[in-house]
Amino acid sequence: MGLKEDKTVICDNCGKAVANLIFLPDKDDLEIIFINVSKSTHHLKTRENKLEIIKAFYKIDLIALDKLLGNNALGFICYHCKKHYCSECWTNCYDIYDEGYYDYTLGTCPNGHECIILD
Question: Are strands 77-78 and 41-46 parallel, antiparallel or unpaired?
Answer without folding.
Answer: unpaired
